[in-house]
Known about the structure:
Strand content: 15-25%
Number of domains: 1
Number of strands: 7
Radius of gyration: 17 Å
Largest sheet: 7 strands, parallel
Helix content: 40-55%
Structural class: alpha/beta
CATH class: Alpha Beta
Number of helices: 8
CATH superfamily: NAD(P)-binding Rossmann-like Domain
Amino acid sequence: MGEQCVVVTGGSSGIGRACVEAVAATGTKVVNLDRNPAELIPGETFIELDLYDHDRIRDVFADIAQTFDIVGLVNNAGMSLAKTLAETEAEDFAKVVPLNMVAPALCAKYAAEAMKRVGWGRIVNMSSRVILGKELRTTYAATKGGIAAMGKVWALELAADGITVNTIAPGPIATPLFKEVNPPGTPRTQKIIDGVPVKRLGEPEDIANAVTFFLKKESGFITGQTLFVCGGLTVGGAQ
């Protein structure tokens, strides 16, 4: 058996970066698959990968498995489009689906093959609170709902191999992209904060904390679940 590792897609910024740092802090090696490099931290390996290149995903996972025993996968990379239904076109799905659904499925497929050889593994998918409904998110909600649904299928198929599959659905998280769209101190941002029961935005580290919990070998009796990490927003919205 070789040295164990966790693979994180889109690990160079935002939530993905927080996941890379949190995994590395546990002493586990982490492989970051991203189009853009980040400043490496101890325990991190970076591999440049465009997740639209579906054929290369197979080759990358094969290469990783030659060096490490893959015991974790965090399907974090994704993209969002903000359009009304009236503005949504077929090409929008053609842009979002390959990255938000096809790539995670292929990553899970090849990671699971490696995990079966090790005898256990943990897959964590990144969904979103928008699967419960949010304006301007037809393609994003569709694909994030899709990855949550696929995760339940994989959980059943892989359970006997000691591989769990769980999904995290973040609420509003103060990533660089979020701050760019919702500048701090603006009325729009404050309205979002006011709608969160804990009265603050989430931080990338809040999501990474949940990710590392699901990645633990000790979390093997939890599978097929979707955890909303949203400061109570999904509960408060029902009031």
